[in-house]
Amino acid sequence: MSADGHMEIPFTVDSRPDTGLYNGKLGVWLFLASEVMLFGALFSSLILIRTGAAKWPEGWKELHVLPATINTFVLIASSVFVVMAWANLRLRKPQVARMWILATLLCGFAFMGIKAYEYSLSFHHHHFPSTNNFFAIYFTMTGLHGLHVLGGMIVFGYFLTKGWSMYDHEPRRFTNRIEIVGLYWHFVDLVWIFLFPTLYLL
Amino acid sequence: MTDHVAESHHDAHDSHDSPENIKKEMTRYIGVFLALAALTGLTVWVRFSLDLPEHQAIIVALIIATVKGSLVAAFFMHLLSEKKLIYSVLILTVVFFAVLMWLPVHDVLDKFGYK
To answer: What's residue B12's pLDDT?
Structure first.
């Protein structure tokens, strides 16, 4: 219990003796385990629908490979930007770290902008989720992934603005928070690494 | 500076948190980024330059994606040096993921007469 009567959340900075981890880190890994099952179910469905179809469209003919390739580079770059932010926070260089977080957020905007452009091209060609099973699973998987990117962007936006004040009085806790959101962001990148070839190139 | 850094991260990683080690990590991150970018280029090149049969194209694309995913997990998500509890959570996840994948793999094997 803190001096002002608020209950303090335990092990936000130091590791719990029994787990060897601070609580947030274990929490985010458990969350990511559930995310593996979420996207795993969709990948499983994709394989089932594809192998069960008499004819399956070739992704590279139906979709737009160039914007998707650019988006792959954007997400990879954003992943390295997050770890650079985390490393600079550990070096106690908050302003440099802030720049890297901003760069990550900008990558998020770039990804969503390119994705919106790609969707508009599909709509222009009258390709909608209702067109066939290929486009249904394409829009479902990329749409869900896009929502995850948006979620990460909201968190990065919070840490760049209101949430940044934590750094001034609890720098270690803030550093851990960036590590946690970084783990989530890398997972989102990892999902895209598998989505890109399976949907766009095969 | 060293004192600041030593207290800037959670206890478990203190021995790895000297400024020198963090700077080495940052250099490694750049290396991983370049590897990921090269492998992305390779994925696209293989698809449009080699004209492989469908099943070979799928296998090659998934191998490259697995290598890329492993790099992200090992270096960016620090799975090369994590606590045992994280590995336990991931092993359980892999088991359930394998169950999820069993149904479509079974279907594919059936389709190609491997049953």
So the answer is: 42
Query: What is the complex's ipTM, to 2 decimals?
Result: 0.91
Which residues of chain A neighbour B25 with C-beta distances below 8 Å? 83, 87
- Of residues A138, A141, A70, A144, the one with CA closest to residue A107: A70
Q: What is the pLDDT of residues A27-71, one digit of tens each?
A: 999 999 999 999 999 999 999 999 888 899 999 999 999 999 999
Amino acid found at A13: V
The per-residue pLDDT for B3 is 39
Reduced to 3 states (helix: H, G, I; strand: E, B; else coil), residue B23 is: helix
Are residues B40 and A77, on separate chains, in Cβ contact within 8 Å? no
A33 occurs within a structural domain: yes
The count of domains in chain A is: 1
DSSP letter at A56? -
Which of B30, B55, B86, B88 is the best substitution to test chain A (most A C-beta atoms within 10 A)? Answer: B86
Q: How far is B70 from chain A (nearest CA, A)?
A: 9
* Residue A122 domain boundaries: 23-201
To test the contact with chain B by mutation, choose from A19, A23, A44 the residue with the greatest count of B C-beta atoms within 10 A, namely: A44
Are B50 and B100 in the same domain?
no
B12 and B47: one domain? yes
Query: Nearest 5 degrees, angle CA B100-CA B101-CA B105?
Result: 140
The CATH number linked to A38 is 1.20.120.80
| Among the ranges given (A71-75, B74-78, B100-104), the one the predictor scored with the smallest mean pLDDT | B100-104
Q: How many CA atoms lie within 13 A of A33 on its CB side?
A: 18
Task: Give the pLDDT confidence score for residue A3 in this predicted structure.
Answer: 61
Q: Are residues B73 and B103 in the same domain?
A: no
Segment A87-100, tens digit of pLDDT: 999 999 999 999 99
Instruction: Tell me the residue range of the domain where B113 lies.
Output: 83-115
Segments of chain A with pLDDT less than 70: 1-5
pTM for this prediction: 0.91
d(CA B44, CA B49): 8
